[in-house]
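Supplementary notes (optional reading)

For those who missed the lab, this is the record we used. Protein: DUF559 domain-containing protein. Length: 285 residues.
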Amino acid sequence: MPRSHLTGVFVGSRAVADGLLSVKQLRERSYRRLVQGVYADPALVLDHRLRCQGVALLLPPGTAIGGHSAAAWHGAPFAGPHDPVTVVRPSTVQWKGPREVRVHRSDLDATDVEWRDDVPVTSAVRTAWDLAALESRGTAVAAIDAMVRCGAVSQDDLSAMANAGAGRWGVARVRKAVLLVDPRAESAPESRVRVALVVADLTPVPQYEVRVAGEFVARVDLAFPEARLAIEYEGAHHFTGDQIARDDARLERLRAAGWRVIRLSASDLRDLDGVVARVRAALGL
């Protein structure tokens, strides 16, 4: 008899073939569809790693979860639950995957792959390379910032990787991204804003401590100290409960210290050119 309920992540057709589930149960019960043909217990938290676990059940030997998806295991869990899962495959493996998967063809050595949570993922250094080669510059740098910050890779690792990559596909993009990495950033949005400013020839200082006569006033996300200009990214938690009052009090302390503050939110990330223009105007450039 089929079980009353399947837990974990499973391939629907295999579960039916093994008698663990009927086609009717698969269709009528509330199993969460992760990618085409792969399902999960709805009690499991839906995030990008869970989707990767589903894709891993379909992967042929010699392939691995990579890029922005693998970064979730290396300190940069920024890919969303509905973002495509990135898979790296060598040219010797012919596999397209389900439509929810983005397949990147590239040489993949055994040393480039490690197993995490029963999922083959690219190593931290290889993940950093693929991030820089495949993703937009801001997205790539944000993820690599986080990977360096948590110790998954070092800046020396990144420099060695970039210097040894002559002739490899994407090396120019990789080298540009590596030069922008700064582990002082404490969030992906902060990294993205900083990258947009640096590319525009502006050089903010990340996580700058504002002090007056030696007394601590506040630490700001990005700062132009000589101009006493701060840029602050405010995520959703800044607009809830007591945090609003704390932020207002902090802003008043900065203003009293002679600082101006540009406050950014998620909507500003959709127009980083506009953010750069605001900062330029505030700097009188």
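If you only remember one thing from this example: The longest strand covers residues 215-224.
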